[in-house]
Amino acid sequence: MSDVNRELLYAGKAKDIYKSENENEVIIKFRDDITAGDGAKKDTLSQKGYCNVLISAKLFKVLEENGVKTQYIELLSTDEMRTKSLEMIPLEVICRNIATGSLLKKYPFEANKELKPPIIQFDYKNDEFHDPMLNDSIIKALEIATQEELDEIREITLKINKILSDYLIERGIILVDFKLEYGKDSEGNIILGDEISPDTTRLWDSETYENFDKDIYRKGEEGVVDAYLKVVNLVLSDEEKVKWNVEQI
């Protein structure tokens, strides 16, 4: 079905969400748009959406196989996935394993210091307020989530961190940090949603510490899509690469 025949429910910075023919499901279309600096910097990079949908689908499947509930249902094409419809919780949940990025600008951490235990950070997902960091008291005062829900989100996030860190390091990738978003399904269960891709993670080569993520774009360097394609090649199976016509790197 073409986009013009679909009902657009939401257009984000890099994804569109369409109504599905099935109740309680939506279609997420990954666009080639890329942004940084709270949307101040914008570009369109060919194959970027293709990379992100393949990586997200694969990592969601890995999580599902290890007992983490996600909104993912199936990969429909090289830019679309079918997912459960969720009422999203307006929080960005950030898990940090290594001190880098904005953490170094705000706190006196030694660069590249391994963080034990990992840091879990909540930001308010709101462009008007520029996604400020929140603590539990502010979250509860804003009635975004209860303490029990926050505790559950932390527990799920740490489980995801362990699963993905182990999975990626076996493929030569260090999971430096990542951002997650959660929502509630029709029964009120907290479910992982959105995406897990080089747009929402920091990924380093385990030997060279080369960036495989959006930091390349943030720094104004070339090779963003090439780096994303490397991640596709590292995380997908040979069978999956053939099925989705992945360029071998």
Give a brief rundown of this model.
Helix content is 30%, strand content 31%. It is of the alpha+beta class and 249 residues long.
List the helices and strands and how they pair.
Layout: E1 8-11, E2 15-19, E3 25-30, E4 33-36, E5 41-44, H1 48-65, E6 72-75, E7 80-84, E8 87-88, E9 91-98, H2 102-106, E10 114-124, E11 133-134, H3 136-141, H4 147-169, E12 173-184, E13 190-193, E14 201-205, H5 215-218, H6 224-235, H7 238-243
Antiparallel strand pairs: 1-2, 2-3, 3-7, 4-5, 6-7, 8-12, 9-10, 9-12, 10-11, 12-13, 12-14
Helix pairs in contact: 1-6
Molecular structure report:
With 249 residues, this protein is of the alpha+beta class. The chain has two domains: 103 residues, Phosphorylase Kinase, domain 1, CATH 3.30.200; 118 residues, D-amino Acid Aminotransferase, Chain A, domain 1 (2-Layer Sandwich), CATH 3.30.470. Helices cover 30% and strands 31% of the residues. It is built from seven helices and 14 strands. The strands form three sheets. Strands 8, 9, 10, 11, 12, 13 and 14 form a seven-stranded antiparallel β-sheet that branches. A five-stranded antiparallel β-sheet has the order 1-2-3-7-6. A two-stranded antiparallel ribbon has the order 4-5. Strand 12 and strand 13 form a beta hairpin. Helix 1 packs parallel to helix 6. The radius of gyration is 18 Å and the shape is globular. The two termini are 32 Å apart. The model has no long low-confidence stretch (mean pLDDT 96).
